Amino acid sequence: MVFKAKEIAGLINGTIEGDENITVDKLSKIEEGVPGSLSFLANPKYTHFIYQSQASIVIVANSFVAEKPIQATLIRVENPYTAFASLLEFYNKIKLNKTGISELAYIAPDATIGKNVYIGPFAVIGEKVVIGDNTKIYPQCYVGDNTKIGHDTTLFSGVKVYSDIAIGNHCVIHSGVVIGADGFGFAPQQDNNYMKIAQIGNVIIEDNVEIGANTTIDRATLGSTYIRKGVKLDNLIQIAHNVEVGENTVMAAQSGIAGSARVGRNCMIAAQVGIVGHLHLGNNIKIAGQSGVTTNLQDDAVVFGSPAIEASKYKKAYVHFRNLQKYVDKINELEKKIKNLEDKTK
After folding, report:
1. In this predicted structure, what is the pLDDT of residue 96?
2. pLDDT digits (tens, 9 = 90+) for 210-264
3. pTM of the predicted protein model
């Protein structure tokens, strides 16, 4: 795809300095700019690259003042980073703008398919499935019976959605995600075996949710597992049965939430965090990486460690932990001195 400088400036409400008809067909970092590429300068630490960059067009701030000649055409905007991010989103939408249903896809006769939908080869759409307008189902996806998917949602290759699931509008679900597999429910028996408890609930994913590759979200035993609107889940996350993740909460890779836990709104959960089942975590909580949460948390809590405690207390305690050997050596030395003094008084 080829774009002129004046077309790009129109998209981001920018002002051109240079050749408005110069064209680009690729994107690049400022330090790796080549002819025909579009780049941006947002971090002052990278300013020196703009004078040697071969990029054809560079997006800069309105306040940028050049100290040396620049060969690139400049597009000035209020915030270069935001402007470039908008262009990336625009570019991505064009690149992924697929429509049409492959002859190699299977669609149940009673499924309802919206307008401008893309369904790729070897995708399987089950009975009574409803798929909204402009939604994209990439090759080798499976959508189980009675599932509803909203409009403008994308399922990338290899996504597996079990039966009776509800997925909202403007969601992005990456390859390898499994939604609606059985929750981990087994009843111990007297003979040390385990009887499986049927998992007959479902999963409800609201609007504007993004789910990273190979993440799994289990169906509820009864009722629903909820992923509320605006939630962003990284790769390799486990959400167990009957969990609820509140609006606009973000979770980094390899974190897990055990069954029936409730996580509030606007929380930030770092990588490799474990959350015990049946807990209630409030709103605006921050959990540091590799923490293990074993108790309920109030709104605005910031925790660290395993088991997780208030982050400031953990950091103070960790200072002492790092010096533990020194303290042990000091105690041993003091014990020897005390013993020597006791021996002398005998």
Report:
1. 86
2. 999 999 999 999 999 999 999 999 999 999 999 999 999 999 999 999 999 999 9
3. 0.84
SS3 274: strand
Single-letter residue type at 93: K
List the catalytic residue out of 174, 241, 278, 320.
241
Cis check for the bond before 69: say yes or no (omega within 30 of 0): no
- Which of 162, 136, 133 lies closest to 150 in space, CA to CA? 133
What are the DSSP E strand ranges found in 169-236?
A: 172-173, 178-181, 186-188, 194-196, 202-205, 210-211, 216-218, 224-227, 232-233
Residue 108 burial (CB count, 10 A): 14
Indicate the residue type of 218. D
Q: How many CB atoms lie within 10 A of CB 13?
A: 11
Distance CA 261, CA 296 (A): 10
Q: Are 257 and 275 in contact (CB under 8 A)?
A: yes
Q: Return the pLDDT at 227.
A: 98
CA nearest neighbour of 122 among 76, 157, 87: 157
Reply yes or no on whether 174 is catalytic: no
Beta bridge partners of 211: 173, 233
Cβ(242)–Cβ(205) below 8 Å:
no
Give 232's contacts (C-beta < 8 A, 6+ positions apart): 209, 210, 249, 250, 251
251 vs 5, 41, 300, CA distance in Å?
38, 29, 16
Cα atoms in the Cβ-side hemisphere of radius 13 Å centred on 180: 22
Q: Are 128 and 145 in contact (CB under 8 A)?
A: yes
Contact 207, 226 (CB under 8 A): no
Q: Write the single-letter amino acid at 221.
A: T
Residue 318 — very low, low, confident or very high, per pLDDT cuts 50/70/90? confident
